[in-house]
Known about the structure:
Largest interface: A-B, 72 and 69 residues
Strand order of the largest sheet of chain A: 1-4
Bound molecules: protoporphyrin IX containing FE, copper (II) ion
Number of strands of chain B: 12
Order of helices and strands of chain A: HHHEHHEHHHHHHHHHHEE
Radius of gyration of chain A: 23 Å
Shape of chain A: globular
Oligomer: heterodimer
Shape of chain B: elongated
Order of helices and strands of chain B: HEEEEEEEEEEEEH
Largest sheet of chain A: 2 strands, parallel
Amino acid sequence: MLTNKRLILAHFWLAFIVFGAALVLGAWQMFVRSPLNAWHFNPEFYYRSVTAHGSAMGYVFPTLVAMGFGYAITESALEKPLIGRRWAWAGFFLVAIGAVVAMIPVSLGLASVLYTFYPPMVGNPFYYIGVVMVVVGSWIWVALMSINMAIWKRENPDKPVPLAMFANVAGSYLWGWTAVGAALEIIFQILPVALGLRSTIDAGLARVFFSWTLHAIVYFWLIPTYIAYYTIFPRAIGGRLYSDAMARISFILFVVVAMPIGVHHLFADPQVGAGFKFMHSVFTGLVALPTLLTVFTICASAEIASRLRGGHGAFGWITALPWQNPIMLATALSLVMLGFGGAGGLINMSYQLDASIHNTQWITGHFHLIFGGAIVIMYFAIAYDLWPHLTGRALESFGLMRTQLWLWFIGMIVTTFPWHYVGILGMPRRMAFYDYANPAISPQAFSVVMSAVGGFILLLSGALFLTVLIRGQWADNSEAGSYRFAIPLHMPARIPAALNSFGLWLALMIGLTVVNYGYPIAQLMVLKETNVPAVYVGAGR
Amino acid sequence: MTAEADHGIGEAVAARVERRWATLSIVIVGLLVGMATYIGIHQATMPQGHVETADPATLHLSGEFVESNLGSAVEADGSVTVRAIGQQYSFTPQCVVVPSDTPVKLRATSADVVHGLLIEGTNINTMLVPGYVSDLPVRFKAPGDHVMPCQEFCGIGHQGMWGKVKVVDKPAFAKLAAAKRRLTCVD
Ligand code: HEM
Ligand SMILES: [Cu+2]
Ligand SMILES: [Cu+2]
């Protein structure tokens, strides 16, 4: 029962417009830094572009998708209208205005600090203020998700919270607490300096705060994708979800272990000692668990759907899956990219192996494969699945959708495999150009060209995606029925309270973060001599 | 058999298979973490143990990172210590010379913003954070030349921040070291 369709559509449209614009910047970056570009250009434009592309793709696009999808889940899973509609619109406008406020100084070249904004480099204050507005807007969503679930539980004391809503609320709590790290960094460290109230800053402490956000943010990006795996995919292919309880355990594991592991981004940093690096490395291993569980449950759910359709044999059932269905195709391609990306992730998480690829092009290749590939392809699937329910018009161009999904997959592989490879050769990341005439660098030239070609394939796929959605806005009216989620194979009669509420898990989430971050943060706050002079960037300073 | 009982059996099978997979997953994760721990402890490939500080505002005035002390120094035990700093947009020294097959201690910091340093063709890779000293033990297997780019965005000249590392064999290095207190290959 979707009542606030305009609210949800507004989130998705803004998300995809931002995505389309940032995609153009990504393709341009790929081209200019490759040997295909024979012209000289101002390197400053490259860093403006990467700041805009990274901030848009990292902060604005996935946040809007999570919010819009969250509102859609609330109304359809709880089968009642959203409580707090006005607040939801307020959150939307905060995100939208924040994005504009942040992008103005970036496009003027006053905040080319990249989306990780590592101090002591400090840009125009409006960039940071805009980012904070985006985060505050999303915090309104976090509160609304929690309130809607609480009220529904009071009204339905003996029903389990529907899985989609449970997972959605898990994602919102995870994000609420994840964003605190960067928020503390911006509000207490960077903004006073950007506004000229202070002139020194502890760059090491800032990196520790940021790592608290930087790692778990990837699970925030991932959760809509996992919700789609568990609650859309089995239904869309005419099957059942293999296990409801295991799904809940996976989402709970993300909430608990996503945060206290961020120091794995600082393995090569001097401001955190070996002990805490080791602790975070161990916890990083644990976060592989929910993904292993998920892959099993999703493949088993696919097998159920196939056997219901008459598929048989140990592997023969795979051929009986409804491959014509875009959701089937998107999920399969997503899992393949998740598999490759996960294998790469195992390398990043060990600090011995990390040394050979830290801050090389391997890293950008890795997160484009997981985030741009495995995660974003399911954002496409969510949009395709939800669109007819939001617009009241059918999406009929199945062939176009399949072409679009295949192109995204092929583009991602062609882009990211060579990207990983040049990383192993030691090519550093975030550089506007490279001297391919240098014999030490020339062996990397061919791979960089390959990546650029892949980038253009991705751009084409992105254009097709927007085309499908726009055509959907003009298609004939059709009643899509109510929006439903997958039903588990065996609906448990009762669900243990631990799998139906968050109190214990939130306590663990906060407790573990305090244990794993408390000492490194306190140690650096005590060290006064590490406050270093800020270096202001941008014209006119 | 009734459909009801059939359903019950199916449910039990499903739960058992699932439990097995969960156990296997935990074993895999445990094994990987165990491997990393074992290698870390037994081959001493742990990251830097302690937090050391250095004030970027006074680097050039006093302490181990004054300009005359940068470059490679031979220690009493025959090992070599390399001291370097990164600044927008170069390293000092711009070319580092080290002996092959010798324990080398790399000590480096930044004079302004966050930089990084990696040596292509090796596993040497560290961040340079202003205010802190990076300290890592390294060893170069064979003589040869390597490029040493800055690997973290440090401003609009980041793409131009490339140093060099020249690895020479031990006797050649000893000969160079006899003539000078601090060695570099900057001509
Ligand atoms: C959906 C998709 C995408 C997402 C979510 C995404 C995300 C990101 C993020 C967060 C960054 C910032 C990285 C940093 O600052 O180091 C980045 C950088 C970059 N992205 Fe994307 N991106 C996407 C698609 C693309 C596409 C399609 C291309 C190429 C056509 C591309 C090319 C680049 C390039 C060249 C960089 C700069 C890397 C560097 O200089 O180290 N991205 N991307
Ligand atoms: Cu991470
Ligand atoms: Cu740099």
